[in-house]
UniProtKB/TrEMBL annotation:
Keyword Repeat in record: no
Protein name: Release factor glutamine methyltransferase
Compositional bias of kind Basic and acidic residues: 297-306
Domain of life of the organism encoding this protein: Bacteria
Organism: Psychromicrobium silvestre
Catalytic activity: L-glutaminyl-[peptide chain release factor] + S-adenosyl-L-methionine = N(5)-methyl-L-glutaminyl-[peptide chain release factor] + S-adenosyl-L-homocysteine + H(+)
Amino acid sequence: MRWATESALEMDQLELAEALRVATAALTAAGVPSPRVDAELLAAHLLSLNLGELRAAALRGVPAPEGLADLVAERAQRIPLQHLTGKAYFRHLELAVGPGVFVPRPETETVAQLAIDWVTAASVNRPVLVDLGTGSGALAAALATEIPQASVYAVELSELAHAWAARNLAPHGVELRLGDLRTAFPELDGLADVVVSNPPYIPAAAVPREPEVAEHDPQIALYGGGADGLELPTAALASAARLLKPGGYFVMEHAEVQAEAIQRLFSRAGFHQVQGHLDLADKDRATSGVLGESGGGDERAGEMTE
């Protein structure tokens, strides 16, 4: 995208406050949803400051950082902010992200909280937790840091995403594998206390509107398979039924329009206490359930696909 004004071209020569004003105007014109915050975050990234420190620096009249105009130009092309800064925030974590991995969303924090709350309420001493389709490793890292007594396992099919997950999970003692969530961790069958998953779930025809998602998030992380997008969520549910011990807990993210269908699938798979959960925007974003005493396994998985 070409910059429309001379001041935009010379942004790096401006004082920070004026550069942020110009950057905000450019991002607004490009349709970026949060132009002021994005402009501030790009500048803060270049200056190695947090937002509070950046705003104080702007009041002091410090110069704009070198390279800000280039980053703003890329953001105006709707390249994800997280790809430009190389990091995304999830709960208490700063995660490394970039091309080839799904950028974690705030909505998924609900899935982590539900799992943490269940472990706390159940007073499980040394829980075994599994994250199916970990992507950047966000859920697995959150569980490992907030339930330090847990043994956490994660699997990811994409080699690119697996590389990002390996970087994010290395400090947290998570056992990460490159593989398919359908067949992951057979040695844990019937032993897991909690399984979480944010699988690909977008229906085939539901192309995301945001360019950041449609053009930059990997398609392998978006589309769930089939017209309704339920192939991979159903596979994750079958794996959860296989991995969990009776009385174990599974929570999965999904699209709002899939909530009713997924709750039926949970029940067919042998889960009880099936509940839907709202995200931060009050949309049906996750479903959870407790595996019945009869367990799950291959027979139940077959029933779900009939």
